[in-house]
Amino acid sequence: MPQKVLEVKDLYVYFYTYAGVVKALTGVSFDVFEGETFCLVGETGCGKTVTSRAITRLIPSPGEIVKGQILFHRPNGEVVNNLELPEEELRKIRGSEVAYIFQDPTAALDPLYNIGSQFTETMLAHGSGPKDEALRKAVEMFTSVRIPDPEKLVKRHPHELSGGMKQRVVIATSLSNRPRLLIADEPTSNVDVTIQAQLLGLLMGLRRDFGMTILLITHNMGIVAEVGDRVAVMYAGKIAELAPVVELFERPLHPYTQGLLRAVPNPLRRIERLESIPGTIPNLISPPSGCRFHPRCPYAFDSCPKEEPELIEVEPDHYVACLLPPLQQRRKG
Amino acid sequence: MSERIFDQLTNAVLRGIQGVGERLRPGWTTRNKAQTDEWRLMMYAYNRSLPGMIGFFLALGFIMAGLLGPFMAPYKYNEFLIVQNPDYQLKPPGAYGFAMGTDFWGRDLVSILLQGARVSLIISIITILWGVPIGIILGLVSGYKGGKIDELIMRVTDVFIAFPTLVLAIAFAIVLPPRIVDLLVASPHLRTLMVWLFAIEYRDALQLSGILSVIIAMIIVWWPTYTRIVRGSVLSARENLFVEAARALGVSTWRILLKHILPNIIGPILVLATLDFGSVMITEAALSFLGLGAQDPIPEWGAIIYIGSQWFPASWWLILFPGLCVFTAALSWNLIGDTLRDVLDPKTRRSIEFKVKEKAPIKEEKRAEVPVKVSVKVPVKASEESSEGTVSEDAPKSS
Amino acid sequence: MSTSMKRFLIRRVTTFAPTVFGVIFLAFIIAYVLPADPARAWGGGEKASPVTIERIKQQYHLNDPWYLQFIYLIHGVFTNSITDPISGNPIFDDLFRAFPVTVQLTIFGMFFTLLIGIPLGILAALKRDTKLDTAVRIMALTGVATPVFWLAYIFIYVFFVMLGWITVLGVPSPSRIITYIPILDALLLGEFNIIGDMIKRYSLPGFILGFLNGGILARIVRNSFLDAIQSDFIDYAKARGLHKTWIWKHALKNAFVPVITVIGLAVGGLLTGAVLTETVFGLPGIGRYSVRSIFGFDFPAIVCVTLLFGLVYVTVNFVVDIIYAVIDPRIRY
Hints:
The structure holds 3 protein chains of 3 kinds.
Chain A: E1 4-17, E2 20-33, E3 37-41, H1 48-54, E4 63-73, E5 79-81, H2 87-93, E6 98-101, H3 105-108, H4 115-124, H5 131-144, H6 150-153, H7 163-174, E7 181-185, H8 193-210, E8 213-218, H9 221-227, E9 230-235, E10 238-244, H10 245-250, H11 255-263, E11 312-315, E12 318-320, H12 325-329
Chain B: H1 2-24, H2 28-31, H3 33-47, H4 50-72, H5 109-145, H6 147-162, H7 165-175, H8 177-186, H9 188-198, H10 208-237, H11 241-248, H12 253-289, H13 301-310, H14 317-344, H15 346-359, H16 384-388, H17 391-394
Chain C: H1 3-33, H2 38-42, H3 50-59, H4 66-79, H5 91-126, H6 131-145, H7 148-162, H8 182-189, H9 192-229, H10 232-239, H11 244-273, H12 275-281, H13 286-295, H14 299-327
Helix pairs in contact in C: 1-14, 5-6, 5-9, 5-11, 6-9, 7-9, 7-12, 8-9, 9-11, 11-14, 12-13, 13-14
């Protein structure tokens, strides 16, 4: 039985803005197991980034984590609730046990400091030292992420590098302390397709070599199919469906998932029209009542606006949040 | 609250503008609907800014004082009451019923302050009215054409900017009066115009040579800043795809500049011009303090302060009140300009916008089916740095 | 120094020469445009004797065509053989006596500007959108709106007439000139009583300048600080678990960059433009000198002073550019 690395339980995150209270996450729960690549998928604005940030309490104001638990299984065996840890403990976890890769590598690096110093400071902040030792590690890491000429790179500044190169630097820096969990937030959205393939391959190789667990956030179903082990589909701040990847693609149960998969055209077949899901994502200040997807759902019936569906296990390890009678009947136990 | 009244007023003004536009060019309203809605939102946001409204009313007060003051003052500006009663000289506030005291010739301070308001108002208006457009036109040409013309204009601009503002203004203001006097002597029409503008008596017209020199001096000093800023904005606006599209369609240069580029960059320029209204007033007060500009008997706030400084600290009221006038007037323009800056920047406006939309929802009327206008509103950040920093302009760009 | 830096410097230098030349030329044009008879004015106005006037005309080549006059002028400037018709001294001697006073005033002025501006700006950024933030903003606006000479008299009334804390006469000077910076010389010579005099003399004008410019500086510091703190690389720094001090280090250095330009411009502005302050406080600096020479139609002096102004402006900009290039590696390209 594989070990759990992360348990998110009933997470609520609200943003208190001028326009009102944005209920970004309402009751998100999922588990991540050791060694797997867990994907969070959804449209822009569904809450996947907020979820990823919440894991180490990186939510900026006016956002607040209102309710829930985030249980992290630390490498030393301890299980802690990140939402209750004191700041200093949490700081130690960030960057060394849980690492992040963000979407835009240009923005992630400080333009005024050279690459080497930004790498070494990540190591030094977590107790590895001294500085020249860290620099040696830097060259080592840069080599493992396939950056050419790593010794020269250490002296360079961010603006001298291309997008793909910068993302590799970010990957190397984030992995410098051998984290247990790597949270990658759309790491390949800002680079072109060929680089995307390289970076993904790199990430998967590193996962294998370092024995990491990856939480991958993306809006691209193709990437999910390529590298994901299990996947959670999010919609309007809630999880709509959660299943192993093959299972989800072969038997999508939630109408939203079905819509998403239909929207990706099969390049081998000629079609007349592109399929899309009618409507737009809801306003999270005043979301639709009951099931949030019901205004756009082709199968919506009278219960849908009234009751919020819970995420229930319909088949082994396959969870859906939908009120459709066939799914409710298949409910285990 | 009172905001409702201001919003109603704003709506009325906007409807008026729409009416005029409709009369000049039928269909104006529908074509410019988006633009008008944008203005409405901006004005609503402005109405909710306390400093902005305070500035607005103060400026309104200043303009009223300038327009009507000379006619409503208890005494005329050239009533040297010292002739009536020698004791009227240099009286502090309250004596003999003079609310703010008298000056060296027994003139009532309130009256000459009001006349001074008129002088300040006209000088500032003329300076901004000429200086800003000249600067903008040169900036447009320089930024858009590029090449040798750009080099030439920028060199000249650099030289002018290298001169300390006040020193340059002083130099021109000293040098020009004799020539202006010649001009005034030669043209009675000019004299009549000036007399009417400044609400003075005909016999004092020749004393205006100082004022006119100051105006010209300030125009010369003021245009370079605008040229620089406009050029910078044009350089970035020029790269936009819609400009390239317009060129490909064969649209003439001037049309592109006026209809596509200018509306997008006008924001920060408007803010700067408003703020500069205040700066012009201060510079003009400084010049008259040094003895340039208005000559006796035409009063000027800065000149009154100078007279006060002669007998300082005894004649404190001659320093305090005129200075207060300059300060308040300049502050009002600064408040307006600063609020405009916030209102024009979509990011800062957002917080106010939401409150507005809740109270008075804008009716989203169906947009008429007209061809989409190419000039898209580009949010140009009006930050302080761009108006003062030289480095942002001259830093080598990889082009 | 890297080659990119060298090339950058050379590029900057070549832009400045034409500007300085242009400045002198403009000054010459203004002076030449003088309709009044300069020789008469120098000779003492109405009372000037024809002999004096003729001598002046000869000495300054006023009868020659304008281009020859310009050449004589340039020659005189560069060999310091140019004499002030009014004071009879070589002009640059006069200028070098006046310049230290302005430098001194600039030092005191910048001291107060930085003292007021930087802390207030940082505070306003940390407590954004609170009453303090609005207060700083109003302070900046009032600073620009206040006429220097008005405020000066009010403060002189309070601090001199009523309290007697400061002096308004005389120019405290060290017994020897070493660096042309009076306060530095006094420090080097250990003449602390002179320093005390200097403080009494220069504090109030310095404070007024600081008060007026401090608000504007605070505003700019606040804005650039906020920009820096909200940058993505700060997010990434937090995500990497860097210590709070290191995060601040990144933020401050980035915030500092635009502030440098503003401070540099402020220094340049004070060095060339404190005309009114010098006049009101009776400080014989180059501001007051320039106004005197303009009023006296002393055009050789006007040209020399503007040459000095041009050089100061160009030098300050140059220094600012260099500092900028040192701090920000992106600029060197």
